[in-house]
Amino acid sequence: AARKAFRNLAGPKQMIGSFHCDNAGELTKAADELEWVNSTSTPFLSKSNSRAERKIGHVKEGTRTVLASAGMPSGMWNYALKHFCVSHNIEIVDGQSAYSKRHKHGQFKGKRIPFGARVDFLPPPTLQKQLPVFAPKAVPGVFLGWHMHPGGKWSRDYKVAALADLDLTNPGRSEKVRVFRAREVLVPNED
User: I need a labelling partner for 22 at 20 to 30 A (CA). Which of 45, 74, 131, 182 fits?
Assistant: First the structure.
């Protein structure tokens, strides 16, 4: 799992020369398998890896905030976490974003939509066939994030869940929600 996550983070063209971690077995093993030079910090001493620990804390805090702001169940943490990280990377600071610096093709071109926002999307053909003949083609849903290619480049698709699948009064059910990739999303009442 760690090796796959590393390859997904690096992407198909990125060459990683060195990698620093906290000496966790799964991380050092994956780095060795990928032939990355791997320096490690002192095990069980968070002070020796304080920058990484702070960034992890920032992502955890941001994920909790995103979930709470959207009123989504904690079981949706994996989507909230990715949404928070992508939002952070596409944020423009002093005319630049981490996204544009990495991919060198200008700023992120997708819609910036809050996690859990109400959206309408065109469902896949299998779901469209289940709709009544004269029903609107767009389905009400909630925004979960952006679909990213390995390496973090946007695929031009959005991740959404059908509103009908969510039961916010029963968080256990909402953890098994179907997630769709949609090329177009519309935010109701968007100017």
Answer: 74
